[in-house]
Fold this protein.
Amino acid sequence: MTADRLHGVRGVARIGLGLAALGRPGYIDLGRDRDLPDRSAEGLRRRSHAVLDAAWDAGVRYFDAARSYGRAEEFLGGWLAARPAAAGAVVGSKWGYTYTGGWRVDAEVHEVKDHGTAVYDRQVAETRALLGDRLDLYLVHSVTPDSPALTDRALHERLARLAAEGVTVGLSTSGPRQADAVRAALAVEVDGRPLFGAVQATYNVLEPSAGDALAQAGAAGWAVVVKEAMANGRLAVPDGPLAPLAGRTGLAPDTLALAWVLARPWVTVVLSGAVTTGQLASNLAAAGGERVPADGADLAGLAESADGYWRHRASLPWT
């Protein structure tokens, strides 16, 4: 099974569920103390399964995890095994970061990045052990223009072998030079054929700098998955940058943030990072026919410089 079914999806299916905030006790997201009072492994397993159930029943079909998201792959794999009706789910995960948080919110280091072949060999085996043949997309996690993932031929050969098994290989990006990383990845070939077929990137009202490169990837046939559409919660809070438009329209800030992203025709799927079923319902309203109104054009004025946005993100605490 490949990621081909992501192309041409409509409505709620254009919203996926990301498990970054559900698979581990600490994450960079506002409001977690209120939303997740029980951070035990069993508590997060139960919450993950409840949100996964609600997402599937509402029409969500793409589910996203990573090796560094604590036990997210384990939670997702267990849910898939217990829910045979979810045979049509499209499952993505990522490798390249190792979770080092020790199930602590106050860990000094939560994850360590390494895009070397040894880490790939270890982590693809770990992912397969938890997700088996349900893996559809496998992305190099958080690629920047200087990442060896863009130049390491031995790694490319390994990824090409995985692609030959039917898994779509791709990359996620982060940092102020996301566009450069995407364009570099578009040029990577193995035996004269493009290697990558999917990208997951940060794109939102505050940080739209990768838009042109992501449109180029979409035109090349890639699946384009948008993460952090709510800027780690900055765009979802009642007094945040979208509050004036929310007040004028009656739409929730998170709905507006996701709808703004979904208005881009090159976006295949945008991820919800919901950790409650109520948040999920509000997120999914972005695909229910609501659109950012005409006076939402002034949202373009909210964009920050890419460097400034990523400096601010780096200052946010893990909570």
